[in-house]
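pasting for the record
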Amino acid sequence: MSTQTGHRTIPIHTAFNRAHLLLGAERELALLTVLIVALVVASGMNPMSFAVGGFLWVIMLGIVIRMAKADTMMSKVYLKHIKYRAYYPAKSGAYTRN
């Protein structure tokens, strides 16, 4: 018999709750930046387009890394946020019309 009267605690390991990041940014956004840079570089195929692509990649990756530091799921939260309407009228039942 246990003499302990407290609540049972279950450890939650951070490895199971951590977001999947790539290069410190959300995986989808990091790959999107690579795709945009690859399109810029492939469209020119000269040293100037490589320089512009590298500059764009550093800037865009820096932005998405800052977003991931603020919230690791910021893009998903924003996409869900823009689906909401500004006003939801009160309804008395599930099948009432506006």
